[in-house]
Amino acid sequence: MPAKSKINVKEKVEDNVCDLSLSELKEVPVSEIASFKRVNVLDLSSNRLLTLGNNFTLLTRLVKLDLSKNKIKSLPDEFGVLRNLRHLNLYDNQLQYLPITFGDLNSLRYLDLKCNPLHTTLAKVVGPCLTNKDCQESARKTVNFMTQLKANSTKEDYVNIHQQQTLASLSKEINADKTSNDKAAGDIHKSKKSTKKYKSKKKANFDNQHQTSAIPTTIGTITTTTTTTTTTTLSSSTSASATALGNNNNLTISKTAKSKRSADGILKANTNSSRNHGTALSTLIIFLLLLGVNIVVIYMVMFKNPEIAEKLVEAIPHQYRNLIITKTEIFRLRVTDWISQFRTPPEEN
Prior knowledge:
single chain; mainly alpha; 6-stranded mixed beta sheet; 7 helices; 5% strand; elongated; disordered N terminus; Leu-rich_rpt
């Protein structure tokens, strides 16, 4: 059983709102909240709730309920008794399905179920909740769906569907754990093999040294000196070879990484340049189309075809009509002034 909250609910109540967000709650203090008869807005967001408890349905006066950013895995079976509920926020929880009584929330007008591992069928019904209108539509569709589900099937059928979903997810987790365990066992087996090889080599070296020490003292001294010199030379050459090999490997790896990075950079640069070319081309086409439309409008106005001009003006949306006519008239006047200045002969001195 989680530890009871020691929070003072009375300090969190203001008018009809009880704000218990960011309070590290592990269970809902239902009895304390229910003692405030005027509270109909409850905020339990950003807590550590795993469940609401069976007595949560005593809060039948609630109109707005915020349970976002918790770890709630299921709602109470009798959640539908909160018939006055109009706004319900369940964002970022662990809900896979809703109780069958959810269809009784006929007053619900807002529902947010984003970031929940919902069952596939239920997720399609709920839909996205990106805007306020989406959440309103989600509330309507979800209540209707749960009402039909309650009418067409029994509660046991609905629970069995989600139990199968839960079993499938558990089997995936078990298979993943088994794969990781097999990999760990393989690594342990390899380490044991390498340890055995190291011990056998060490034993062989020890035997060789023991046999060498059994030779007479005079010859043994010469042999020991020779063996020591040879061993030192071999060790030095082996260490140098290993060092050179390691350096070569590091150099090869660094060159490979650099070539890969350069290839990725070239690919990204080519992609960006192609996108820029495409954007520039589309912008040029739009500009030419708009220029052509302006030329046609100016032509119609300048050559005094009022009927065609009026039809063309009527086709323009109302919110843009006055602006376009004004700009066109200004341009026509400027062109007329320019033409008149061009045709006027220069004054003779």
